[in-house]
Amino acid sequence: MRTFANLDEYAAAKGEHLGFGPWHEVTQQEINLFADATGDHQWIHVDLEKAAAGPFGAPVAHGYLTLSLIPLLVRDIYTVQGLSMGVNYGLNKVRFPTPVKVGSRIRAGAELTEITDMAQGKQAVVKVVVEIDGEPKPACVAETVVLLVP
């Protein structure tokens, strides 16, 4: 865990890779709960038999489930002290190069690519790459944008 004492110290890390988080196993239960929450019950996610015979050989996580796991995957990479809050501002770019099969282990790496002064604090763009254990291509590459308020 990399700890920044304040926003200025964090801003000084612009252009640096901040590290990797721990591995997280994607379970069928997570996939099913996400399907229930979003209404996306496509067979490639929730029909175990059909998905096993399908193009990926197993059920796969929704791309948006992988994206939604970014806060969990990043939380052990770094922290900025002295904040009253962090607010998700959006995403600049998101891609899902490789599907995440049920039972796969994923982890995130984070790089602070941009930091901009704002009236409320600083806006940071963090490039997050979600890796799949044993796969050459990542599951997700996303430029996350967050407003950090002291």
UniProtKB/TrEMBL annotation:
Residues 12-129 form the MaoC-like domain. InterPro entries: HotDog_dom_sf, MaoC-like_dom, NodN-like. It holds the Pfam family MaoC_dehydratas. SUPFAM superfamilies: Thioesterase/thiol ester dehydrase-isomerase. Belongs to the enoyl-CoA hydratase/isomerase family. PANTHER family: MAOC-LIKE DEHYDRATASE DOMAIN-CONTAINING PROTEIN. This is Acyl dehydratase. It comes from Saccharothrix variisporea. The lineage of its organism: Bacteria, Bacillati, Actinomycetota, Actinomycetes, Pseudonocardiales.
